[in-house]
Amino acid sequence: MNKNLNFAPKLELLVKIGDIELPDFPLLLAPMEDVSDPPFRALCKEQGADVVYTEFVSSEGLIRNAAKSVMKLDIYEKERPVGIQIFGANMESMLQTIDIVEKSNPDIIDINFGCPVKKVVSKGAGAGILKDICLMEQLTAEMVKRTNLPVTVKTRLGWDHDSIKIVEVAERLQDVGCKAIAIHGRTRAQMYKGEADWKPIAEVKNNPRMHIPVFGNGDITSPEKAMEMRDSYGLDGAMIGRATIGNPWFFKQVKHFFETGEHLAPISLAERVDAARRHLQMAIDWKGETLGVFETRRHYTNYFKGIPHFKEYRMKMVTSDDSAAVFAAFDEVLAAFPDYQFE
C-alpha cells in the first residue's frame, strides 16, 4: 500500500458519470472480448456490478455492417446502466460509429484507448493512439460533440515507461468533455506482464484540476485489493476484468467485504452449477448453439476451481460441441461431488 500520497478530499458520496448516479466506489465490469457479452453481463449485474460494458466494437466493422460487430450492440434493460465501447483511429469512421451506436440507446459510449493487442495497435487504435496524444484528444473532443450521451475513456498509463504522461492526458481528455476515465495500471509495452502500478492513477485523481471520476483497472484480484484501491489510492471506483471470468460473484464478494470486513461464505457447488447452466443457456439463446457452446468454455475452469480430480469433467465441458453433453457434464459434477465445500 502507498500511504505517502496526499489525496484530494471527496466532497460527495455519489459518483456521477454525466447524469448517471452511482454508489460510492462503484464496481464496473470491464469490456472484454468474447467475455462481456449479454449473458455474462446479466450474471454480473445480478451479483452487484454497478455498470457493465459491452465487448469492444470495431468502428470499421460497424460502418461495414459486419455481423459480429453489429451483434455486439445488443443491450437489455435489465443491465442498465450499460456502456458500449468502441475502438478505432479514423475520425470519420468513429463519428459514423457514434450515430450507429446511439440507435441501440446505451447509457454511456466508451472509447477504447487501451487495448494492447497487435492487430488493434498496428492500425493506430486502442493503445496505439497513446503514441499520438493530440489525435487522442481530437477524437474524444469530436465524439463528445457528436452525441448527448456521456463519453468515457478506457486507457493505459502510456505507450511505454518512458512516455507515461497520464496525468496530463487525463486532464486534456476531461477538458474536451470526457465524463469519466478508467486507467489500466500498465503501459502498452507491458501488455499484461508484471504488476499493475496504481500510483500514477492516484496521481491523476489527486490532480486538483480533475473533477471527473477516475476508475482504476488492473490486478483487482480480491476484495482486499479493491479495498486497497479505494482506501490507500483514493480512486473513485474499480473496473474489474479478468477476476470476474467464471466468477460473476466477485462483485458481491467485494461489496460484502466492504460492508462487513469479512469474506462472503464460499459459493456452493449447486449455485455454481446453476450459474454455469444459465450462462450456457443464455449464450445459446443469444448467439446460437455453436458459438454459445464455444464462447462459454473459458469460464468453466473458474466456475469449478478447486474441485479435486476435476479434469475429466472439465474436458467434457470444453471439448464438446453439443450443448446437451455440456449440460450432462454439469449434472455429473453435482452427482460426483455432492458434499464438496469450496474454500
| Helix/strand structural class | alpha/beta
Mean pLDDT: 92
Q: Could you give the order of the helices and strands?
A: EEEHEEHHEHEHHEHEHEHEHHHHHH
Q: How many beta-strand elements?
A: 11
Amount of helix: 40-55%
Beta content = 5-15%
User: What's the shape?
Assistant: globular
Q: How many helices?
A: 15
Q: Major sheet: order of its strands? A: 3-4-6-7-8-9-10-11
Q: Which spans of ≥5 residues are poorly predicted at pLDDT below 50?
A: 6-12
Gyration radius, to the nearest Å?
20 Å
Largest sheet: 8 strands, parallel, barrel
The separation of the N and C termini measures: 26 Å
Catalytic activity: a 5,6-dihydrouridine in tRNA + NADP(+) = a uridine in tRNA + NADPH + H(+); a 5,6-dihydrouridine in tRNA + NAD(+) = a uridine in tRNA + NADH + H(+)
Enzyme class: oxidoreductase
Keywords: Flavoprotein, FMN, NADP, Oxidoreductase, RNA-binding, tRNA processing, tRNA-binding
Organism: Winogradskyella damuponensis
